[in-house]
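Bit of a strange request maybe. I'm writing a small parser for structure token strings and I need a real example to test against, not something I typed by hand. Could someone generate the tokens for this chain?
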Amino acid sequence: MERAGVSLLPPLRLAHMKVFCLGGAGKIGSEAVRDLVEFSEVERITVGDLREEPCAALVDQVGDPRVDYVRLDIADKEEAISVLSDYDIVMDATTISLNDISTECIARAGCHGVNLNGFGEEYKYDSIFREHGRIHVPGFGMTPGTTDMMVRFAADQMESVDTVRVSHGAFRPIAFSPSITETTTYEYDPELPGRVVFEDGEFLQVPPFAREMVIELPEPYGSHPQWIIPHSETRTVREYLEEKGVRLIEVRGTWPPENMRLVRALYEWGFLRNDKISVGDREFGIMDVIGDYLQGSTEGTTTKLYGYALHVQVIGVKEGSGETEMTITHTHPSSDGSEPGWEGLRAYTRCVGIPLAIAVNCIARGEASGTGVVIPERAFDPNIVFGELARRRILIHVVENGKRQRQP
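Reply from user aminoacidic:
Good idea to test on real output. This should exercise your parser:
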């Protein structure tokens, strides 16, 4: 990862700005589109997706003349670059497996960009973004993204930092969309090299279900065991805090308990290797088959409790206070139907999609720092992001040495 500059980008002319939303017809991408419609003054918002029917349905639902759609196949690079070159910012809500291709297209089209996943393929295009004077921020949803802002908020108040623990509970069905199914398989791949912790100057690879820790999440989610996951915060936080002597960085996560029981069984029985099986004269990956089944089942597409819960712990030394522990969490409106627009699955998808849209607005308003591929911790001011989240009723809570602080 390259260290990016810290100068603020010049603001774009909002009245003439055009945003392209890759994968914008998906469950999370569509929430980011809705948020842009409500909170942004951009001239044009184009939903780009292979599937025309959900694109057309989304355009009808939002009912805003600024929103249109095009059918776009990101795998056709030259066509995609040609289409994207007419836009200022690309909001990339595509799956992990497409982020290499999508980032290349965004870079070569000369656009600013931001995506949800941030798993590392983006950094190879740093020089192209720099040449165009553009920024690309990899990984800006709840985690990574909002969690990076939480870590920076705490660490910026400390002279030195010893320990960072990032944790989250994503309460959603295990397979409500193809991209979520892919995420499950990816994050618990037994051979995945990116599942690491940073400890005493080294990145150490760990297996699935490593370093179990029970994390107390805000209500109504409660306490759950969590395990190390391969999210980008491990590396971006280390880069941001390198000069503050950080010794330990661990990133954990969990899904609903029944999801975790299933994933653990699949891991212990070897299914997550995705070994090839033959059915008649055709060959399939066993996890691909299981994923397809789950996407069509009630069990795979529903859960009891919906929403998102973040928990970030930063331990360091604060001037005048000595050793300091800051714990930062977030809450959002209930999924029980009492809050219009937050019912059921939308309590989860809005939590992920809204930060993506906020990142687009920050770039548009000149509130992003640096050019090239810039880690979230350097790209955005957490106070600005937290303020924008609060406008959407997503609230950040800070406890310092056991005492609740005023909301940032």
